[in-house]
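#struct-help
A.M.: can someone run this one for me? Single chain, 296 residues.
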Amino acid sequence: LFGAPPVVAVAAEDHGPVLQEAAAALASADPQALAHADAALHVAIDRGGDDTVRLRAVAAEVLATRAGVHELWAAVEPAMRGDARFWAQEDAGRAAALLEGLDAEPGAHEPASHGAITRAMALLRIVHGRADVSGLQLDEESALLIAAAPLLRDPSAKLPEPVRGALAALASPSVLARLVLALGHARAGDAAASRAVVERVLAAAPGQPVARVLARASSTAPTAELPTGDDPVVVAEVTPPGQPSTTPAPAGESAERLVDRGCKKAEAGASEEAVALLRKALEKRPNDLDALLCMG
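D.P.: on it. C-alpha cells below:
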C-alpha cells in the first residue's frame, strides 16, 4: 500500500513519418517542402527522446539544403539575389547552431546521423563559398558540389569540364546536384543540355523555383541576356504573400515579359498576382509551356 508507485512504461514516439517527410523534402529540394519538414523536425526535437541526435542531424541537413537552394536561386535570378542570399545565410546560421557539439553526442556516428551531419557540413561550405574539403569525409556528390562552389558566387565563373562531366555521370544525383549541373551547362553556353537537365528536375519537382528560372533562361537562349538600352527593364517586385501588388502590368507588355514577371511572383509566394500575370500571358500566347508550368 505504501510502496513505490508503479512504473508506467511510456512508448517511444515514432518519428518515422517526420523523417520520411524530411527525406521527401530533401529529394525535391523545394523550399516550401523543406520549410514544412524543418517545422515538423523542430517540434519533434523539442519533445525530446532517444532520436534527438538523428533529428538534429536531419534538421541541419534540411536547413543546409535550403540554404544551398537559396544560394543557387541568387546565382540564377539577379532580381532575387539580395533576398535569396539573406535567406541562405539565415538558414546556414540555424544549421550551424544545430551542428554545434553534435559530433560529441552519443549516436552521432551511427550511419544515418553521421551521413546527415557530413552532408550538412559540406553544404554549409558551399553556401559560404568555400571550395576546400579539408576535415570532411565526403561522398562523390558532396565533393563535386564543393568543387562547384565558385559557380554560385561569381557570375562569370564556369564549371570545370571534369567537374561537369562527373556531375553528369552520377548514378543517382540529388536535385541540388542536377541544378548545379544545369547552371554549369548554361554557363558553358549549352542551353539544350541545361534545358534537358531542368526538365528532368521539373518532372519530379514541378514547384522547384531554381529549375523554373533555369527553364525560362534556357528556353530563350541565346537572347536571354541582359536587356539592351532600348529594352525597358522591369524590376521584379517581391510582394509578401497575401498583400496586393502596387504595380500593374504595363499596357502592351509582351507575353515573354508577362511570363517572366508572373513566374517571379509565383516563386516569391505571391500566387494571386502570379496567376493574374500568367493569365494575361496565356491570352497572348495560349498553351505557353513556361506560363503553364509556373501556374502549377
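A.M.: thanks! Residues 7-11, 222-251 have pLDDT under 50 and may be disordered.
D.P.: also worth noting: The radius of gyration is 22 Å.
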